[in-house]
């Protein structure tokens, strides 16, 4: 018998310990209302080949027939089964392109069911700060604190980001903050390339609508997704690139190190400090020209 589990019931203190253990291990999102005992599942069976018997394999996107004796899986509503595919990428592009304002874009994202991450996240994390500010900062994806509050960069990384921005004379009254992915990946896992592709049209349109003078991309994934470069962030940081909007407008972009990385590697804060000073100088130069 498992410790703390007597007569089919958990002792509450042990259950609390178990949940804390799961939370610390990153398992902090419930994916369905009903628990599902995966240990009770029989070993996977090989699907019959097409034409081998009368049964044909289920068409792509439809669940395959349930083998006899298999325990019932939790009921998942059709919308929750949304699988990232080319159709969803195309729909995301269309919705993003049709948004005429940031409010419309947020509304389109709210109604968009094409990304599975939406169904495990608590909130859409659209943006924070001032969309009319000269600087836009873009991270990868929300974490737990951001998911709970529905705002980007409000946890420990966000506090460090605020200090970094403060050091160059900015705060959220002058900076617009967003992420490439607007929903928290469960357990803070890395978003898949397909999830990134689905969300990319929205953040690209968000940048286009906010039209900042300068962008900072924080970390490798955000830099890769928006500046279309495959090199590692250590090579790219500190070097100006251009973000090219869907309509062809170019916005100077500075790749820098992600604050979460800097929290783990404080010795590299001096590199980010250099990048942020570059940004400050560029904004000053643009101000002087206007
Ligand atoms: N990390 C990110 O990339 N974005 C957030 O909003 C928070 C942490």
The coarse silhouette is: globular
**Strand order, biggest sheet?**
3-5-4-6-8-7
Please give the largest β-sheet.
6 strands, mixed
The number of distinct β-strands equals 8
Give every kind of bound small molecule, once each: uracil
Spans of at least 5 consecutive residues with low confidence: 46-82
Strand content: 5-15%
- Summed up, the helix count is 10
Distance between the termini: 74 Å
Share in helix? 25-40%
Mean pLDDT level = 84
Structural class category = alpha/beta
Overall radius of gyration: 23 Å
H/E element order:
EEHHHEEHHEHEHHEEHH
Brief sketch in words of this structure:
This protein is α/β, with parallel strands linked by helices. Helices cover 38% and strands 11% of the residues. The relative contact order is 0.11.
SSE diagram, text form:
Elements: E1 5-6, E2 9-10, H1 12-24, H2 86-98, H3 102-111, E3 128-129, E4 135-139, H4 144-149, H5 156-167, E5 175-179, H6 193-210, E6 214-218, H7 220-227, H8 233-236, E7 241-244, E8 250-256, H9 259-264, H10 269-289
Parallel strand pairs: 4-5, 4-6, 6-8
Antiparallel strand pairs: 1-2, 3-5, 7-8
The structure holds uracil (URA).
């Amino acid at each position: 018998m498992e410790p703390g589990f007597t007569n089919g019931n958990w002792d509450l203190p042990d259950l609390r310990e178990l949940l804390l253990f799961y939370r610390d291990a990153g398992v902090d999102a419930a994916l369905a209302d009903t628990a599902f005992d995966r240990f009770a599942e029989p070993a996977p069976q090989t699907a019959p080949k097409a034409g081998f018997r009368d049964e044909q394999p289920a068409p792509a996107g439809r669940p395959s027939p349930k083998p006899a004796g298999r325990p019932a899986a939790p009921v998942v509503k059709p919308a929750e089964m949304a699988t990232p595919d080319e159709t969803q990428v195309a729909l995301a592009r269309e919705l993003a392109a049709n948004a005429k304002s940031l409010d419309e874009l947020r509304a389109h994202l709210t109604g968009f069911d094409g990304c599975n991450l939406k169904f495990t996240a608590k909130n859409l994390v659209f943006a924070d700060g001032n969309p009319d500010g000269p600087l836009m900062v873009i991270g990868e994806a929300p974490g737990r604190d951001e998911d709970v509050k529905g705002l980007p960069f409000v946890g420990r990384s966000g506090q460090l980001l605020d200090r970094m921005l403060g050091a160059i004379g900015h705060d959220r009254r002058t900076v617009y903050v967003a992420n490439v992915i607007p929903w928290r990946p469960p357990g803070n896992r890395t978003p898949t390339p397909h999830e990134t592709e689905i969300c990319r049209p929205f953040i690209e349109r968000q940048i286009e609508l906010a039209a900042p003078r300068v962008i900072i991309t924080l970390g490798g994934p955000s830099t890769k997704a928006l500046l279309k470069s495959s090199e590692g962030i250590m090579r790219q940081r500190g070097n100006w690139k251009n973000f090219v909007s869907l309509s062809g407008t170019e916005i100077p972009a500075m790749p820098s190190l992600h604050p979460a990385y800097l929290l783990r590697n404080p010795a590299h804060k001096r590199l980010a400090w250099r990048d942020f000073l570059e940004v400050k100088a560029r904004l000053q130069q643009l101000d002087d020209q206007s």
